[in-house]
Amino acid sequence: MASTLKTIFISSIATIAAFGAVVYSSCNRDKCKSIVCANGGVCNDGSCTCPSGYEGTNCEKVSRDKFLGNWHVLEKGSITLAAQYPISIEPTTNLTDVVIKNFYNYFKTPIKATIIGGDSIVIPNQQYEGKVLFGIGHIYSNVTYGQYGAIEMRYEIIDTATQRVNDFGYNEAVDHSDPSQWNK
């Protein structure tokens, strides 16, 4: 009788241990098991970490796509009157780069820019047609134009002949200029 109770007791302990192991392992399941990250993204703790140039829940979107298209510019520089004109932002062969056509309503040469962090556009320091330019902008949503329908662009144009600076919110604290507004 004692050996039967001992066998039942050991069997009960083994059953409880097996049940506990199953419950424990089901609570600590792999959060990335059912996640598929596109375009070289990597799953970390149930979320995709996207490579540069991609975004979205599963890295399925190209970050620069929201910047592409035709935009309407409204701006007033620190030394120029208010102006309105069209520009276009177009892709290049590099996934994070774009060109801006008709920038400043002056440049015939497309201006090079780079998309960083998914929502920012950077115009690196470059010189064309007697002017030096650089700037940074941020794309956002607004009521009138919807999701990704506006860019607030801050930049400067420096005339190489006269050294006069036309500022569009880049050094706002110094010259009280306003950023350029680009709308879809």
From TrEMBL:
Gene3D superfamilies: Laminin. Residues 1-17 form the signal peptide. Keywords: Signal. Residues 28-60 form the EGF-like domain. Pfam families: EGF_Teneurin (PF23106). CDD domains: EGF_CA. This is EGF-like domain-containing protein. It comes from Nemorincola caseinilytica. The lineage of its organism: Bacteria, Pseudomonadati, Bacteroidota, Chitinophagia, Chitinophagales.
